[in-house]
Every structure is written in C-alpha cells, then in structure tokens.
Amino acid sequence: MTAVIPAPPAVSRHRARVNFAIFAVVVAGGGWVFAALDRAAGESTGAATTTSTSGSTLGQGLWLLVPALTALALHFFGKDGAGPLGLTLRFAGRVRWFAFAVALYPAATALCVALATATGAATFSLTPAAGKPALAEAFAAALAFLLVKNLLEELIFRGYATRTAMALGLPGIAPHVLVGVLWAVWHLPLYLVWMRAADFAVTTSLPWVWFLPLFNAGIVAVAVLYGELRVRTGSIWPGVAMHTVSNALVTPLLLNGHLRLEGHADAWIGIASHSIASMVIFGGLGLLLHRLRLGKQGVVPGRPENPGRAR
Fold first, then answer.
1. Left if phi > 0, otherwise alpha if psi is -120 to 50, otherwise beta: which for 171?
2. pTM score of the predicted model
3. pLDDT tens, 94-149?
4. Closest Cα to residue 20, out of 230, 228, 182?
5. CA–CA dist 172, 185 (Å, integer)
6. How far apart are the C-alpha atoms of 308 and 232, rounded to whole Å?
C-alpha cells in the first residue's frame, strides 16, 4: 500500500503581508519604546556591552525578547502557510554547513587583518590592551551569552522574518534585503541609546552621519548571506553558529585593543559590518549562494518559496 503524504499548506500572501507588517512595526518601533521606558524608570543607558549582560537594562532585554515573542505568536496564531521556524537540526549536508558557518568569519577576519596590516592601514597584536583579557579567554567567556542572544536574534530575523518574507512573492534577493533593512533598523537603539560611547569610538572613526548609512548597507549585505543559509538548510542553527563566532571574535579584537585601524580604514578594510570589505565578502558570498541555489533548483524569481523545507 502506498503511503499518502499530505500536501504542505498553501501559502497565503495576504496573511503573510499582514503578519510581516505587524512584525515590522514591533521590531522597528519596540526598541525606541523600551528605551523611553528605561529613561522613565531612571535606568542608566549608554553602558551596555554586546558580548555580556553587563550594563544591560530592562528595556534592552525587552528589545530582544518582545520581537521573539511576537514572531512566535504570529507563527502559531496568524497561520500563513509559509513554513516552520527552522529550529530543526536535521538537514542535508549538516556537517558541511556548520563547518562553513564556524570557519567563515575567522577566515574573513584573518584576510582583512592581513590586508590592513600589509598596507599600513592597521597594527595588530596578540597582546590585549592593559587590563583586558587574552583573545582566547574573551572569546570563550562570551560564547554562552552570545549563544542565547543569537538564538533569539536568529529566531526573529531568520526563523520568522525570512520565512515570512519569502512568502511575499518578491523577486530575487528582495526578501533578504527586506529582512536586512528591518534588521538594521532594529539595531539602531543599541548603537544610539544603550551602547557604551567608548566602545563605539573604537568600533569606527566615522561620524554618525557616515557610519549609519554604511552600517545599514553592511547589515543588508550580510542579511543576504544569513538568509540564503537559512533557505538552503531550512534551519536557523548554522546562522546561530556563524553569528556567535563573529560576535565572539570581532568584538574583542576591536574593543580589547588587538586591532588598531588608522584614519578611516575601518570604513574600507575593517572587520566590522560597516566596512566595504565586509560588504564585498559577505554580500558577495550571499549572492553566490543565491545564484547557485536558483541554478540548481530551477527556482523562478518572484515565485513564493517555502524556507522551512531544506534546499
């Protein structure tokens, strides 16, 4: 007797659009509301780090938690047929994709550091600044916090946002760009309200008027890579691994004094997301994965896809 496999639920573009609009309002506006709540409660802002809970506020916690809860609520109660949230660890080529995710940022960082030091745009030392932990110690100390933080962040932006954006019927990489724009906007309260001014000063030499456009472009570029990784595997976990490694490596390199960039070199050959080098490397890899997927699968641009199914 032949087993009958039930057909996947049909995607409702209308429902997906409504859900994505609600989600976008919460994600884009929530941080500013929570920052205002911090100020009203007398919470001290401008003291947070990005690799631990040190200096964090209630508002900053809500900034991460509320979008995740919104995504879960919309997924379970606003049925749009766009597929699961990508929490599976069972997908084809699992070892290969995890190896790619873990190795990519160290390799890209090593390349940028080598180019920057070879051209005199930066100096690098394995010895951290006085009072700062060694690189391996800082990396290891940040992993537990970053794993939890990035699980929530990837659930929000790849688990829910990518699978929903893919159901909107947008052509090419437009779903990833849409998610990237929302991801960039979501980050703004972190940089403008909660982040330590001293940490920002060593992250970039640029004034806000130049940093923000480059940062937004960099986030959109890397969103293409993260989004394609999510669609290709049907899982958020390779993205969680890549995100965690990148944060745990890049942040101490900059904040602990290992890498010192001269002039405005951070804007063109730096290791943070606002650099031209970062956009070329990660955006280029994202575009390559996208083209390979379309060529292999014969996916028609603009046709709704189901990111919950491994590709």
1. beta
2. 0.91
3. 999 999 999 999 999 999 999 999 999 999 999 999 999 999 999 999 999 999 99
4. 182
5. 22
6. 9
